[in-house]
């Protein structure tokens, strides 16, 4: 049997009726998390039959693998059930000069720095995808695993604001120092530089994102029916951080990395999530007034860590049912469709920039799927997400861009920890960064940066523009995989997602 991958053109379909009730379909949570040592399946094992002669990608597996990627990014003391055998406790001495414990959180990308700005954005987007497509997580038996995943950064973000102060710690690790050293985080045994906001320092954006992350996690825990005070704890901290953020009007003092050109969109994103967590209409009224007064209705360059506007427009429409917000987000989505304005590569990738090109495709695709769920041009927007997903998973290329999945996936990501030998063995440039083979450990589930505007890409560890991984790359990607899995179990998956095969 030979497998033939066919790129389908956009085919309008009609979707009618309500989503079926699948509350009884939730599987028992897995007793043990999948270990990275598993043998990679054959190519055809990555697809599952949905109808005779039709296959789709295994979106549930992709969601699970993405969660494993975030497990691999964990900093601090790891739990006993840590599924990543090549990771151990690291940076357990992270703390401020006053002794504030700053352990935990996620390492940002292929480095060992903890940047709160993209970490908080990623957490809020992951929580948002979980909330919108919770049935997908239930069917896959991943609810508890996902809540545990987003709890990790939220607990760290809480630590970054010492109680009863206006202090907020927004970064641990000097990026300039870190990027000169190629090594695993477990080997870091020196005090790391800590960056904070206090007094008259501005920082609405970075503190607002922390508030949004905690508030969205509070909503996620509540809607998942988790009892106890976890949601309440996050809600209280989100309210306090939002209060501080609104009094520090302006952008935080980023140093070379994650420099933010504006701060108003983060305050809007925070206000909406705090409203959803608390139900206090004062936050909604403030958000709507801020949206108008700051002119946040404009079309974004992209939905990514630096611009949350398109996500906020979708939340505003969901909350208010005001068609103004619907039209505003559709301006971005309509321009994102092929032949409508934004650039595409010759092979069909929605393309915004060379550095981490797939993050933009994933961000637009998640925006499209949520918009489609809210009734906006569902056929076209869902097929757009399918086509972009198929590109990322390698259906029309010679390779997948997701580590550990599909045909010929990346195996040399720009990622320090996975490139180093087993724990206990010395990690040197010769046996890691300059090692000609695949990384010593598979970073399962990670989406690499992606190709250039001409579809050119190489599996080169030294190419951080195309082959680095990052928490903010995977956040919308995971949302897309969950959204497509929910469409599949509801029976609403567009034809563009099917991968036809035949025997020759």
Q: Explain this structure to me?
A:
With 504 residues, the chain is mainly alpha-helical. The protein has helices at 59-72, 116-132, 134-140, 143-159, 175-178, 204-223, 230-246, 264-278, 281-293, 309-320, 323-336, 357-373, 378-392, 416-419, 464-467, 471-490; strands spanning 47-51, 54-57, 114-115, 168-172, 194-197, 499-500. Strands 1-2-6 form a three-stranded antiparallel beta sheet, with no helix packed on it. α2 (116-132) packs parallel to α6 (204-223), α3 (134-140) crosses α16 and α4 (143-159) runs antiparallel to α6 (204-223). The longest helix has 20 residues, at 204-223. Mean pLDDT is 89; it is low at 1-53 and 500-504.
Distance between the termini: 6 Å
Query: Counting H and I runs of at least 4 residues, what is the number of helices?
Result: 16
Overall pLDDT metric: 89
Across the major sheet, the strand order is 1-2-6
Main β sheet profile: 3 strands, antiparallel
C-alpha geometry:
globular
Q: Which regions contain 5 or more consecutive residues with pLDDT less than 50?
A: 1-53, 500-504
Total count of strands? 6
Helix and strand composition category:
mainly alpha
Q: Percent helix among the residues?
A: 40-55%
Rg over C-alpha atoms, rounded to the nearest angstrom: 22 Å
Q: Strand-and-helix sequence, N→C?
A: EEHEHHHEHEHHHHHHHHHHHE
Per DSSP, what share of the residues sits in E-state strands of 2 or more residues? Answer: under 5%
């Amino acid at each position: 049997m030979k497998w033939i991958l066919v790129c389908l053109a956009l085919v309008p379909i009609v979707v009618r009726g309500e989503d079926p009730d699948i509350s009884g379909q939730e599987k028992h949570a897995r007793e043990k998390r999948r270990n990275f040592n598993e043998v990679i399946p054959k190519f055809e094992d990555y697809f599952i039959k949905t109808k005779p002669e039709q296959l789709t990608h295994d979106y549930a597996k992709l969601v699970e693998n993405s969660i494993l990627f975030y497990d691999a990014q964990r900093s601090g003391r790891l739990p006993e059930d840590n599924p990543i055998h090549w990771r151990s406790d690291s940076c357990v001495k992270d703390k401020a000069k006053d002794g504030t414990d700053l352990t935990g959180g996620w390492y940002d990308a292929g480095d060992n720095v903890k940047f709160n700005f993209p970490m908080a954005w990623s957490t809020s987007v992951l929580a948002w995808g979980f909330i919108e497509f919770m049935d997908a997580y239930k069917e896959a038996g991943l609810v508890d695993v996902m809540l545990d995943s987003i709890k990790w950064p939220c607990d760290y973000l809480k630590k970054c604001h010492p109680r009863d102060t206006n202090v907020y710690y927004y970064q641990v690790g000097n990026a300039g120092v870190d990027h000169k050293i190629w090594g695993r985080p477990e080997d870091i045994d020196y005090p790391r530089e800590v960056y904070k906001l206090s007094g008259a320092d501005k920082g609405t954006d970075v503190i607002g994102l922390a508030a949004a992350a905690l508030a969205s996690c509070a909503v996620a825990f509540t809607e998942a029916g988790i009892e106890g005070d976890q949601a309440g704890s996050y809600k209280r901290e989100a309210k306090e951080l939002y209060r501080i953020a609104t009094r520090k009007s302006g952008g935080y003092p980023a140093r070379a990395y994650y420099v933010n050109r504006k701060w108003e969109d983060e305050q809007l994103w925070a206000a909406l999530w705090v409203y959803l967590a608390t139900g206090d209409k004062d936050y909604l009224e403030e958000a709507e007034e801020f949206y108008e007064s700051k002119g946040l209705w404009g079309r974004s360059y992209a939905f990514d860590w630096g611009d949350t506007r398109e996500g906020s427009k979708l939340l505003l429409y969901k909350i208010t049912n005001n068609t103004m917000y619907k039209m505003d987000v559709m301006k971005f989505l309509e321009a994102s469709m092929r032949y409508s304005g934004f650039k595409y590569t010759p092979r069909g990738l929605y393309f915004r920039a060379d550095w981490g090109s797939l993050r933009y495709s994933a961000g637009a695709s998640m925006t499209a799927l949520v918009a489609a769920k809210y009734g906006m041009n569902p056929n076209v927007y869902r097929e757009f997400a399918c086509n972009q997903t198929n590109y990322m998973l390698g259906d029309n290329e010679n390779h997948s861009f997701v580590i550990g999945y599909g045909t010929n996936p990346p195996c040399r990501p720009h990622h320090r920890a996975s490139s180093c030998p087993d724990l206990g063995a010395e990690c040197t440039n010769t046996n890691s960064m300059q090692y000609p083979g695949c990384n010593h450990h598979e970073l399962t589930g990670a989406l690499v940066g992606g190709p250039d505007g001409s579809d050119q890409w190489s599996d080169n560890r030294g190419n951080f523009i195309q082959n680095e991984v990052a928490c903010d790359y995977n956040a919308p990607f995971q949302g897309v995989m969950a959204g497509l899995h929910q469409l599949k179990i509801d029976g609403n998956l567009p034809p563009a997602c099917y991968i036809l095969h035949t025997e020759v």
